[in-house]
Structure formats: C-alpha cells, structure tokens
Hints:
single chain; 23% helix; two-stranded antiparallel ribbon
Amino acid sequence: MEDSRVVAAASLxxxxxxxxxxxxxxxxxxxxxxxxxxxxxxxxxxxPEWHGKYDKPCCRLVLSLYGHVDSxxxxxxxxxxxxxxxxxxxxxGRRGVFTHPKSGSFLIVYVDxxxxxxxxxxxxxxxxxxxxxxxxxxxxxxxxxxxxxxxK
Length: 152
C-alpha cells in the first residue's frame, strides 16, 4: 500500500498520468516449474475420443492454475522477468516496484494488477513495451488531463 500511495502521489505532478490495468488470466500466462501435478478433467474439457473410453481422465498440469500452491511464485517470476526484459528496473528493497529510466515512469505490480505513473507522453509507450511479453487488458486511465477518463 505504501508504494502505491507514493506512485499515486508522484502522478500528481504537472504533466503526469496514472493508469491501472489487469493481466489477462495472469497465472495461466506462466508454466509450473515441475511436472508432478496431475488433474482430473471435467467432461466438458475432454477430447471427443475420450468419451466412452475413459471414466476419469487425468492430465499433467503444465500451466500455473489458480489455486495451485506454487502458481503465484511462478507467475511472479515470469511477470517480473518479462517486465525487466523490456527495460524496466526493479527498485531494490521494494517488492514489485519498477522504474523505467528512459521514460521516467514507475510501475507497481501486485499479483495481476498493474499501476503505472509517469509523464503522460510516455504512458502509452510504457504499456506497449509491457505488452510485448505479457497479456494485459485495456488500461483504465485514472488521471490524464486532470480528471479520470475511463477506458481507452
């Protein structure tokens, strides 16, 4: 909470904006780092040829499914790595807080929520580089031109 308040306060500077976005199906964007989890699939997810052949087919779980004990850690590792790979720098001692030296923007990631503050002219470019590796939904522009503006 402390970090998000600092970033929100920074967005109050003249010429700055504040945007919020969510990752689409965040955990499913990452893979489990092991292959020892098996799941029983409900019939609506069976392959057509399985009906009448199997009673309770099981498959190896490869994606970080919500509810799996390790999913959050694998999503965080993928998310933070992807953010850093596109030029964002993790702020030492702060969990999920990044800065982009070229644009002067700040980014906070909390599970699947993204909060970005920076010079308005750099905001769209900041989201574009994040979307190079992560599926992020439309941005809710919290403050541009002095007032909330809704979805893009």
